[in-house]
Amino acid sequence: MPRTAAALLAALFTAAPAGARDPLAHTYSIVARDPATGQLGVAVQSHWFQVGPIVPWAAAGVGAVATQSFVKVDYGPRGLELMAAGHSARTALDRLLAEDAQRDVRQVAMVDGEGRVAVWTGPSCIADAGHRTGEGYSVQANLMASDRVWPAMARAFESARGDLAERMLAALEAAEAEGGDIRGRQSAALLVVRAETTGQPWRDRLVDLRVDDHERPLEELRRLLGIHRAYEEMNRGDDAVTEGKLDAAIAHYGRAAELAPQIAEIPFWQAVTLFSGGHEEAALPIFGQVFAREARWIELVRRLPASGLLPDDPAKLERILATAPGGAPGAALGTKLPKAAPTPPAKSATPETAPPPQAAKPAPPAARDEKRPTVRVEGRLTAEGVECQAMRSDEGKLYTLTGDRKGFKTGDRVWVEGEAVQFSFCMQGTTLKVVDIGRLD
After folding, report:
1. Less crowded by CB within 10 Å, the N or C end of the chain?
2. CA distances from 29 to 55, 133, 222, 271, 357 (A)
């Protein structure tokens, strides 16, 4: 070894001016190419603030890079430049390592657009440190609680189902389950790009999520991925409306609401899109549900005609606003509604014509709500919930649970009979109010 670890550390902290030092992003990460879609991605978690801007790098059709340990950020953009020029991941990494006097403290992984992988774990990376490669991917980690972390990541990635983002996130979760970073956890990031560039980098990024500072960054990253998927479904719904495919649009919007039921804005714009597209009857009940959740959307409706997002037609606006609890008269800001015809004054009742006094009739008893139908789901309790206990069904669907679950913990395989809850404080999936629950194994 050309230098001791102490000498390398001294060089790193004295050779660069304050503010330009290599960040200490000891971490675990994965770089991968999806063989089915050609998509490229990086996912990372670390006990370091804002790991997202320094570790993960990817370019559509070119490759992906993770640069960590005593990070030299140059490996990211320069590695992509070399791969874009036609160099393989191996050639690009070897060239950059040859130029780096502090390579012994670096940990870098690259995958190119053909799925070829190259990785380097410097001999002076803080233990436990190592990497493992497989077809089209590499997992790497340093400063870990144990040397079981990166093998667990590889197994999880290879066995996980779903798209590239889901499989990479599963790898990170497996690392955390094995103890992860010995210092703890703080930030995470997930980046996925297209198989081929569109020539517009902002369109090439399919997933770009960052958690800069959080007690449970992977749980937050999974929550953000769910919201990302919800908005992707919204976009597909909008496209379907434009194409005149109402049934498909409603299906996409429904999936969006299911993925992020806590966000009232999703069904609001769904209703706006449907109404503006001439599907008024489908839109009105959705407006009503949104207004019942948050009254602020009533005022926004009044402002949209001026921007061309709703018809500038007082009668149509009144139809929308009438779905609010108790109604909400007034179609648009500055719009004067026609005055109602004056009501002729009532004739004074004379003793001869006045009706005899009658006792007030009691109000009819309020109708009882019918019991909601229950559903039965089998699956495993997981740590994916933010506000509520989460459950991943055997079919892969995410549920969150409210109600009595005493005696059950994360990791248990259970069956749940519950009532579907349309609106709740839970942050993810479909919420079930537990009626009964039992263990399966």
Report:
1. C
2. 9, 12, 15, 40, 82
Residue 184's contacts (CB-CB under 8 Å, 6 or more residues apart) are 47
201 vs 387, residue with greater confidence: 201
Query: Nearest 10 degrees: CA dihedral of 153, 157, 159, 162?
Result: 140
Compute the distance between CA of residue 70 and CA of residue 316 in angstroms, rounded to an integer. 61
- Is residue 282 within 8 Å of residue 320, measured between CB atoms? no
Distance in angstroms (rounded) separating the CA atoms of residues 165 and 167 = 6
- Give tens-digit pLDDT for 362-406: 334 333 334 457 889 999 988 777 667 888 998 888 888 887 777
Q: What angle do CA 366, 371, 377 make, to 5 degrees?
A: 160
Nearest residue to 250 via CA among 227, 275, 270: 270
Place of tokens 């609680």: 145
- Convert the pLDDT of each residue in 295-314 to its tens digit: 999 999 999 999 888 999 99
Angle at 188 between CA 186 and CA 192, to 5 degrees: 175
Are 429 and 398 in contact, with CB atoms under 8 Å apart?
yes
Q: Are strands 40-46 and 187-193 parallel, antiparallel or unpaired?
A: antiparallel
Return phi, psi of residue 208, to 5°. -145, 90
Give the 3-state secondary structure of residue 58.
strand
Looking at residue 34, its pLDDT comes to: 98
Q: Who wins on pLDDT, 138 or 397? A: 138
User: What average pLDDT is seen over the chain?
Assistant: 84
